[in-house]
Amino acid sequence: TAEDGYALWLRYAPLTGSAKERLDQFNPVVVQTGEADPSVKVAEEELRRGLTGLLGHVPASSGGSPIVLACNDGSSGARGHFNVAAHQQANGRSLLAISAADSVGCLYGAFALLRELSLGRDPATVELAQAPAMPLRMLDHWDNPDGTVERGYAGRSIFDWWHLPEELSPRMIDYARANASIGINGVVVNNVNASPLFLTERYLPKLKRLADAWRPYGIRLYISVRFSAPIEVGGLKTADPLAPQVKAWWKAQAGKLYQAIPDFGGFLVKANSEGQPGPQDYHRTHAQGANMLAAALGNRGTVIWRAFVYASSGETDRVKQAYEEFKPLDGKFAPNVILQVKNGPLDFQPREPFHPLFGAMPHTRMMLEAQITREYLGQATGIVYLAPLWKEVLDAPTGHGATVAQVIEPTGMAGVANTGSDRDWTGDQFDQANWYAFGRLAWSPALSSDQIAREWVGQTFSRNPNFVRQLVPMMLSSRQAVVDYMTPLGLAHQMGTGHHYGPAPWVCTLDRPEWNPCYYNRADAEGIGFDRTRSGSDALAQYAPSVAAQWADPRTMDENDLLWFHHLPWSYRTQSGKSLWDELISRYDRGVAAVDSMAREWQTLQPYVDHERFVDVASSLAIQRKEARWWRDASIAYWQSLNHLPLPAGERPPE
Ligand code: GCU
């Protein structure tokens, strides 16, 4: 039912068959610890709720196998680590112990146990020992105080600033449960294009109410701040980071925040980017701006400074600008500043090579920013499972002695949230999987896309092995499908300007060169692609030599990034033996065919899915089939208007 969409992966649907028999036999009893710790209470509550769902009745209160929480077990290690293990007691009954050094670890252990049980694992053999791979696992909301969400496709904001602080929607607790269940421990509640309202007295009690509600779930609250807020809401004449009155103002703001919210996380800042104010307005560097805010927070919190910057310029390739601006600042940031870098150097495209800043600033703490909301990937229709996209980046060797995952592990990972007030939270059932996958990868980048999909499908839809076996491969191939029908072979940013939804490769007349899709495709009668080698923009030189070498030769490189780095004639022979033109068309066709096959396969899965969600997904796939054709046909028609080449012979997938 629609209720199930709301419950996300925390459905706890009754077990059946042998899994049910095993859990019945085990007969779990949640032991009350009597501890006043709010996180332990929440863990007990969640265990009771989860077991009630899985068993199909309220768990017994005595006489069964006790589940014991030991949340101060004296162990050391990463905050949030836990162990779950079953032991045989003298009386012959089993006992399940969840142990951790702190109460949040216990809560994570409880959720991990419920996940295992939800997937049908035998409680008597559960054995888990886990620790988060990175300290910061964050969601960034691009939500505005008026309830709109920038790049949000799931309805209005889930944050009801109007009714806060008096009214706290129960949704805020379900949100915290969902996050805690995957280990998310930080939330930025407002848009990086930040309203200064969040730094006013009026908003402080609202923020405090949320922070108090989320604390038991191990979630710290952060806000995005507008660099010029001292002028807009502080009544000052300047926001120059070196001006004493500006420093004092930020210090006072931080003081008020910490008085209300003792564990306040800190500030996220978008500065001197896309019209946002910043230190450069006063001829100060990013480091000077960030360090001033860092001093205001002191050792209580963190400044997360974004590296997403680019200026209008005909000369500098847009993808080179962040590296050019930040690389010289390596070692100049205060210890409580983190530089947050998008996965790729452009902007959350269906595929981009990893950002050259990863590994290139060894004296700077760096975290990765991923986008869970699908701004450039069809928004909230169809199935596009993003774990493979993120894995591709995390697993990439930077050439500086570490993979991207290894570079960010000491720090963390942020995902731009895809939540909204839609009943299913994310606008589309399958987009819940992207929220889930983001959290799981931030917890452990070593998990495979396949494993995460299996977990999600089993908890969210059905554990039936036939269902899982059919659905998971569909999810796994869905990302390459969207790359193929939108921007195959390394093309990028071909989406319509502003909305970023449909195709617009022909647009070439906008004021700023890098706003135009034609800037990125560089297509003409002779060829297509962006030369980023030495003969072109030389963006390739920003990568470590071993990595740059991989992409330097179009004949040997991974063709998934071909036109990102090279401008080639339409007649160029690709690795398949086809001409570039024919290869391009076969990729568009492959994308369309993949969506058709997802839609067909989904029809066969009806017996496993409740009616509402079945229809919901089927309709969404029908839209995706149209989108795929729209992208392919519009793109090919435009390329043909330039090169006048015929379509290769062969079958097109039917309408
Ligand atoms: C993209 C997006 C903007 C957003 C920006 C950012 O350009 O389209 O809406 O503000 O990224 O990450 O700051």
Notable traits:
eight-stranded parallel β-barrel; 20 helices; Chitobiase, domain 2; about 10% strand; five-stranded mixed β-sheet; TIM Barrel; single chain; globular; about 650 residues; alpha/beta
Topology:
Layout: H1 2-7, H2 17-26, E1 28-30, H3 38-55, E2 65-70, E3 82-88, E4 94-100, H4 103-118, E5 127-130, E6 136-140, H5 171-182, E7 186-188, H6 204-214, E8 220-224, H7 229-232, H8 244-260, E9 266-269, H9 286-297, E10 302-306, H10 321-326, E11 337-342, E12 366-371, H11 387-394, H12 404-408, E13 412-416, H13 431-443, H14 449-460, H15 465-486, H16 517-521, E14 527-528, H17 545-552, H18 562-565, E15 568-569, H19 580-604, H20 611-643
Parallel strand pairs: 1-2, 2-4, 6-7, 6-13, 7-8, 8-9, 9-10, 10-11, 11-12, 12-13
Antiparallel strand pairs: 3-4, 3-5, 14-15
Helix pairs in contact: 3-4, 8-9, 13-14, 14-15, 15-19, 19-20
Bound molecules: alpha-D-glucopyranuronic acid.
Characterise this structure.
This protein is an alpha/beta fold. It has 3 domains: 2-130, 2-Layer Sandwich (Chitobiase, domain 2); 138-376 and 399-421, Alpha-Beta Barrel (TIM Barrel); 485-643, Alpha-d-glucuronidase, C-terminal Domain. Helices cover 38% and strands 11% of the residues. It is built from 20 helices and 15 strands. An 8-stranded parallel barrel has the order 6-7-8-9-10-11-12-13. A hairpin with a 5-residue loop joins strand 3 and strand 4. Helix 8 crosses helix 9, helix 14 (449-460) crosses helix 15 and helix 15 runs antiparallel to helix 19. The chain is globular and about 80 Å long. The mean pLDDT is 96. Alpha-D-glucopyranuronic acid is lined by residues 150-151, 192-193, 270, 274, 308, 347, 375.
